[in-house]
Design brief:
heterodimer, A: 289 residues, mainly alpha, Serine Threonine Protein Phosphatase 5, Tetratricopeptide repeat, 2 domains, 14 helices, B: 241 residues, 6 helices, 0% strand, ER-Golgi transport (chain B)
Chain lengths: 289, 241
């Protein structure tokens, strides 16, 4: 532990000396890069994550001087992995620089992968706005590289966070698009009713009964078997309860569905929003009478 | 003067560390109470019959405990920052750095656990609030109706749908893996082609490398000769002067 730390500092001092000296024989940046790599490795073994991250950033600077962008991007990724344990903001900025370098050299699939990693970091920090932005970028890059499965995974995350941020139309469009794609795949078409249920719940949050009815008709045309499912029944009954402004009926319908299929926290949150709005409307009606 | 200064810093460090350890103990106790409160809220919320009084009482104590834990976490963060500044000013010592890293890890762990429990309690509270109703006879109706074959068939179908969702997840992972393996195979095919071309050109490359090595050694020899000549000239000039 301690000797690894001192060894790392020794390597770092040697590298700094190489950088400040002349490059008479050979390239000083290559030698400094080698020494910085050894130093960072020693710091990692000593569990000094901040020092390891800073040393990897110096290594990235050396590689940029050598016009080697792939190595510089990889060094930034290593720095981000070190900073992930101590400083999330620094980790995100390192990954951002790595993504820019990968875009410069045309490695879009690796850029997409690290954009997804940034989004996961923000998700862990519960910063939903930034997570949504980066998941969207990642989905775009995966789509550009024709990696449809990963793109759809990122899109579902985008839809989930968009609904939490009350951007319901974006969420609806994404879920419907994923449902449409899943219908063409024999393996995935049995999950279509889940996607349509999510889209329907987002429609309910918009409080537009005509739009809900049109959406339900569109879903029936999209998937003829959807009209026989309990998900369709739930959405239709909730739409009727909203039309009649009956909170008790709403609660009964949701409770019956929940007794069969427990709702996850995302659906619970959105349906609670619908219920709160419905309750407020009912109170208004009572006050008027 | 220097010894007194170092003594003051050391005593400050020990005092800060003692306070940090006390707050960590308090946080541990409060987090376990918070988790138990969450579990009790789960048991209270699962039964629809007595959904009136438990949310209000447990909600109040839950809210106050949450704020208490939050303030303790902020205080611990401040103390960690103070310890970090104290360690930086005191100079590099390995044991101090390790202890500081240990305290930082503990703070991070507590923050993660608090966030997770808070998310769980929020989720359960929303669930209970969504499903609570003023009519209790519906519950009796559901209880009496749960033994009918129709309900059991519906429950079975819900389980099947859950399985379908899990299978979808596995299938999407398999598809992603297959896509990555396909691109990898394409890459390896390209690499194989390039390696074959490289093998064809290898004698040319070897002669090229030989030329490079010869040129490099010739450059080194020329440079050495020039330096030696200059040195000799300087020595002769100095001796003759």
């Amino acid at each position: 532990m301690a000797d690894q730390l001192s060894k790392g500092e020794e390597f770092e001092k040697k590298a700094e000396k190489k950088l400040s000296g002349w490059g008479l024989f050979g390239s000083k940046y290559e030698d400094a890069a080698d020494l910085f790599d050894k130093a960072a490795n020693c710091f990692k073994l000593a569990k000094s994550w901040d020092k390891a991250g800073a040393t990897y950033l110096k290594l990235a600077s050396c590689h940029l001087k050598l016009e080697s962008k792939h190595e510089a991007a990889q060094a930034h990724v290593d720095a981000a992995h070190c900073y992930k344990k101590t400083n999330i903001n620094e980790s995100v900025s390192c990954l951002d620089r790595a993504v820019n370098l990968f875009c410069d050299i045309g490695r879009l699939s690796m850029a997409a992968r690290y954009l997804k990693e940034i989004a996961e970091l923000y998700e862990g920090e519960q910063n939903i706005e930034q997570a949504l932005v980066y998941y969207e970028k990642s989905a775009d890059f995966f789509q550009n590289e024709e990696v449809t499965t990963s793109a759809n995974q990122c899109k579902q995350k985008v839809a989930q966070f968009a609904a939490q941020l009350e951007q319901y139309q974006k969420s609806i469009d994404i879920y419907e698009e994923i449902a449409r794609q899943s219908l063409n795949n024999n393996l995935l078409k049995y999950g279509v009713k889940g996607h349509l249920l999510n889209a329907g719940i987002c429609q309910l949050c918009k409080e537009d009964v005509v739009a809900i009815t049109n959406a339900l008709e569109r879903y029936q045309e999209l998937d003829p078997t959807f009209s026989g499912t309990r998900e369709y029944r739930l959405l239709a009954d909730i739409a009727a309860a909203i039309d009649e402004e009956d909170v008790a009926k709403f609660t009964d319908v949701v409770k019956e569905f929940d007794s069969m299929t427990p709702l996850d926290s995302w659906k619970t949150t959105l349906l609670l929003r619908v219920k709160e709005k419905l309750k407020a409307k009912e109170l208004e009606e009572d006050d008027l009478t | 003067m220097r010894d007194t200064n170092l003594e003051l810093q050391e005593s400050g460090w020990e005092e800060l560390r003692k306070e940090a350890r006390k707050i960590e103990g308090d946080l541990d106790v409060k987090l376990s109470s918070y988790a138990k409160l969450g579990a009790r809220f789960t048991q209270g919320g699962s039964g629809y019959v007595d959904s009136g009084s438990p949310p209000i009482g447990s909600s109040r104590s839950w809210k106050s405990m949450e704020m208490e834990i939050q303030s303790l976490l902020e205080k611990l963060l401040d103390i960690n920052d103070s310890m970090s500044r104290c360690a930086a000013s005191a100079g590099p010592a390995t044991s101090v750095t390790q202890k500081l890293a240990r305290h930082r890890d503990i703070l991070h762990e507590f923050t993660q656990e608090f966030r997770r429990i808070k998310g769980n309690i929020n989720s359960m509270r929303e669930h209970a609030e969504l499903l609570s109703s003023v009519r209790d006879d519906i519950t009796d109706f559901k209880t009496s109706g749960s033994m009918s074959p129709r309900m059991q068939l519906l429950r079975e179908r819900a389980s099947i749908h859950g399985n379908i969702s899990h299978i979808d997840d596995v299938i999407s992972q398999a598809q992603a893996t297959r896509a990555v393996l396909g691109s990898q195979r394409t890459l390896f095919t390209d690499v194989q082609g390039k390696v074959k071309v490289l093998g064809d050109k290898f004698p040319m490359i070897r002669s090229l490398l030989g030329s490079i090595r010869r040129r490099r050694s010739r450059d080194t020899l020329i440079l050495s000769a020039v330096i030696a000549a200059c040195t000799l000239f300087l020595i002769i000039y100095w001796l003759s002067k």
